[in-house]
TrEMBL record:
Its main location: membrane. Keywords: ATP-binding, Hydrolase, Membrane, Nucleotide-binding, Transmembrane, Transmembrane helix, Transport. Residues 575-803 form the ABC transporter domain. The keyword Transport applies. This is P-loop containing nucleoside triphosphate hydrolase protein. One of its GO terms (molecular function) is ATP binding. Residues 994-1003 have a biased composition (Low complexity). The keyword Glycoprotein does not apply. It comes from the Eukaryota. One of its GO terms (cellular component) is membrane. Residues 252-531 form the ABC transmembrane type-1 domain. Residues 982-1006 are annotated as: Disordered. It holds the Pfam family ABC_membrane.
Amino acid sequence: MFTEYPWLNISSSLLSSIFILYAPLEIWRLRGASIKVLPDFQSHIKTVLAVALSGVQLISLASPTVPNSLRDQIPAIASILASSELFVLLRLGHRKTVRPSTSVILYVGLSLIKDLIALTLPSHNLTPIEHSLLLIQVVLEAGLLVAESRSKVQNLHPRYQSLTAEERTGVLGRVFFWWINPVLREGYRDVLVPESLPGVDRALSSKVLRERVIHAWAERSKPETKFTLPLALFKAFRRGFLLPILPRFSLVAFRYSQPVLIGATIDFIQQRGSQDERVDSGYWLVVLTGAIYSGLAISTSVYRHRLNRLQLIIRGALVGLIHARALNAESSPVTNGKALTLMSADVDSVDTAAEMVHETWAQMGEVLVGTALLARQIGWFVGLPLLIIFGCSRMSAYVAKHLQGRQKDWSSATQRRLSMITAVLGGVKSMKILGLEEATRSIVSDLRDREIAMSKRLRWIMVAYNASVLDLIIANALGIFSPVVTLVLFAVSRRGDAVLNPDTVFTSIALLALVTHPANMVMTLITRAVAALANFDRIQTYLLKGSLLDQRVLVPPNSVAEREYNLETGQRLAILMEDVKIQPSPTSQPIMHGLNLGIDRGSIFMCSGAVGSGKSVLASTILGEMAPKEGRIVVADERIGFCSQSVWLPTASIRGAICQGTAKVDNDWYDTVIEACGLSPDLQSLVDKDRTWVGSGGINLSGGQKSRIALARAVYSRCSILVLDDPFSALDGEVEDHVVAALLGPRGLLRDMCTTVFLITNSAQYYPLADKVVLLHDGQAQVLDPRDEIILSRAQISKVNPSQGIKREESKSNSPALADRKRMDYAAADVSRRTGDLALYGYYFGSVGTFSMLLMASYTAIYAFCLTFSSTHIIIAPRSGSTLHARLLGKIMKVPLSYFSTFEIGNVDGIATIRASGWETSFELDNIMALRNTATGAEVGVALNMIIAANTTLLRLVEGWTSLETSLGAVARLRSVDLNTPPEGEDIGNHNLSSSVTSPSTSNPANDGKSTLFLALLRLITPQTGSIKLADIDIATLHPHTVRRRGFIAVPRTREEEDGISVSAFADRGPLYLSCPELLEKPISTFAPLSAGQMQMFALAQALLRVQAVSFQSPSPSAALDPGHDSISANYNSADTGLKPNSKPIVILDEASSALDLETERRMQKLVDELIIQKGFTVILISHREGGLRRGVGLESDVVVLRDGRVC
């Protein structure tokens, strides 16, 4: 056809031949595919265009201008055959594929480019007929390309409507990102909301990523090396890692086409040919320019898009892998805090690892290719820039050698801070009760300062790298001096020759730039790769730590093993322990040894013992959470219902917390469980009934309500075995009697279901309900009949049980709807932030400080000339981080308790309960779905790819601006908390009812006002009417922290254990501290995990330290015993606190002995009497145990019983 340009005929024949060979394969693949697109008009348009295109090609073949030789007719014949297959493929593919056909688009698009070149080539002399036919063919091809590239979303079968926009878009739409245009248009018109964002395709599904990486990690090669985790990621997502290779190769090719373009341009300027030749050369120069820079733009966008997807894959896979490991790891504050840090800080550091890998090989390839091309221009002088590169690499080697350890230290410091913050937020109620806001703030600030100090060690070495004399060589000399020195020396060597050819000079300059830039990048990537490897090593170390090995032997019901056991014992197996030795750690003493215990199916065993005797450890061993050092444990069912003494509740509604792990709620069974656990009156008093939001850690509920919800959850699970660790300690007598009778009585729910119950309790009055009682003492278990004399003699303490009915107080818990509304309000406020909000810039600049801002501005100006601006980051980043952290910490420490009731803290907790109940799959699904519909408008901007980069400076400007806007999103949230969160103590009102608190003990049923009174005394809640006075001072006039720290010494029912904090960290240092400072300065994490009873003793020890400190500060013994000063506070300045000088604080003990056994409780009461009451302190002892009250405070003390919110 194109006899004047044989290459056009060759390209046409080659393109048609490839399509002719490939199209049948795709047609065969689609033959058995299902129909995905409903009948529409678009398919008819494609058919008409394809038929018309074939007709035009037939006419062209029959045209008299076509030579008769077969060689000249082959291109036309091949095109007609290809068009015929194109017709079939269009008809079949339109109905059976969701996406437009990639092969059709590529074939038609390339044919269109070929025909456009043939049509517009200046020297191509076409006859009018040929020109007309070719023009018609171009129009038809363009129309067919547009028709095939259109999305089929409007006519998709309903089953495929849920596919994401990217999954429905053809190759052109994905290359040019047309699928994101609707989101951009909506973003320009209105504020984007989560519903506006496109979904994530199935390849990026959290479930898919999690399953694949877990499988790859399980099949990893051994022994492990520091590259095991990266190699496992590559094995799991090999296709994702390989996809960026082709566009990166294309990018290298197009980049090194630029020197060719420069040479061709110079030749065009210098050539002296005819006008026709110059026009033809100019035409091809324009085509070459368009092809190179279009190729650069397209290959860059495709490469960046695939890298971004790979980054999401790595992040999602690592988070899923760490989460899966956390579900199988030992449950402890240290492990949980480490998992949080690894999922955040460490994953942030390694999710760009794939980009570093691809950039490393690509940049090294560019250096080699550029060097080879440069050698053709300047010969052996090409070794000069390589010599400079080698010399400069020494600094990179030094940085790489010292970088990994410092990166690990920084990450470890971040982990300690996050662990502490998680523990503080989880126990914020206890912290406020103890008046430890300032102490906690100081400790967290110290951890933050240490974290910043560790970051400075890393940053200073980077500053040494970036700002040193060697860096001047690396960053500047390679880019500036190398071309000059190389060309000068090359010119000197040619001193006797002719003048340098401009083609050689400018082509060499371009090649030198292309060589020196990737050389720079390679040395920069070395330091980044070393830092990433340090974080990979931390993650891999966590993953390789021994998982929790369940060494229990499972003997399912009706199995052969169970029948053999039944024949031997004549009983039905539930739990069997033979010669069990329990030792928590290799360095600790065994807690139990030679333990033999058999529990029959359907029986109720009650376990009792002193604090620290191993009751909770025994429960953990039954659950498989702790492996025995010796012996064997046999269970009939590995799924065991568990109610922990330290209640864990998910952040959900009450109904959701009880029905955790079930896909469908059995309403009849749910109502039965609610009634049996005594929750019906509580739910009736709530506005949203069982839809009430429990809050983070159950902060919206009382201790008794949390215990009963956890108990109801265990019962609702219908496990054949239940392990209950002292679930009744927070309940009053009447509620406890109801729950025990409904569950464990002769007609109790668990009795009717023949559920095996292992109940840990020191409430001896319920021993007669047990089949057997297990007493733990000195590492041994004594199994007794509940009717034995030794058992009956222990039932001495009863709980207060008023004869009148109990009226529940109305809870002020936030409903899920309210909590959701608040979260949506915060999200809307955040998403409505506009990029032009100057207040955010002012807020951030204020956190940096005037001096730092001036320094930054000065260096910014200098950076334009000297490229040294990055050095100032060593000042700005630590200072802004420290200041913003201090502001946020200070604000959080001062907010009222109600602020925490609507927020999820975000921690790793409840692992033992989840594993015991078999809810791992449910929580895996929750983790997979957790981020759905949570993205904001700022995050959309980060996800958008740069399509065409006009030049490097503009690209960096846009990237820098995008990063700034992303960072401002975090600054906006910090500013919102700082400005909109009210601190405690600002709203001080007058009350007209006065009620002085002087009685040393109170007792009441749950929810009759005990917790409310306790919180009101400490100003954690504000009374609506009336007033509370201490020594004739209305506490409403005092700051809440002053009331808690100087007016009271409070011991809450529960106390959180903070990892890494010393025993005395929150206590005043008095005589007791001076007697054993080495012991009290040890971190809590160095001791064995403390049980609930031990934590209560620990809290009392802290109170005793404060009491001793107050007594030590008193100016004289007489003043300490002065009746006029026995109301409140110690030797504090009245001008600062508003309290009388030298007065003593009131000591409040809230259920301080609820988790203690009888003997330990007596010892504690003796300590309270000798070290607190006899020192002249007023004590308010809150307890459910009436007998314990009488013995603990004496008959001469007042006992106040609260009922219906009133004093009886």
